[in-house]
Design brief:
Number of helices: 5
CATH class: Mainly Alpha
CATH architecture: Orthogonal Bundle
Distance between the termini: 90 Å
Order of helices and strands: HHHHH
Radius of gyration: 26 Å
Number of domains: 1
Length: 115
């Protein structure tokens, strides 16, 4: 009896990998073995960098808050300590947005801590 192979499923599997490798350079886009390695590595980078992105944004927010607070004669650490003491629950993302785009509102928050 002849050997039965599921060519439809095999072709689908290969097409899926090559579709994900679309737009890459050289043999990475059209040779299955090279494309498979490239796609797998890309998925590893994507997984890693979804987490790194969160760290990067937190650092950016802290930098922006620090710049905004220093304009009012205070340091970031003192500012965050006073926020905790006064039970003002604004997260860093919101504070950074206020410092960048709404300086008068950010000044009001700083003044609330000094009073």
């Amino acid at each position: 009896m002849p050997r039965s192979v599921n060519a439809v499923a095999s072709r689908e599997r290969r097409k899926k990998i090559l579709k994900r490798a679309k737009g890459q350079f050289g043999r990475r886009k059209n040779v299955l073995t090279v494309a498979k390695n490239s796609v797998e590595k890309g998925l590893v980078y994507a997984y890693r960098d979804r987490r790194a992105k969160k760290r990067n944004f937190r650092g950016l927010w802290i930098t922006r808050i620090n710049a905004g607070v220093r304009a009012h004669g205070m340091s970031y650490s003192v500012f965050m300590c006073k926020l905790a003491e006064k039970n003002i629950t604004l997260n860093r993302k919101t504070l950074a947005d206020l410092a960048m785009n709404h300086p008068e509102a950010f000044k009001a928050v700083v003044d609330a801590l000094n009073s």
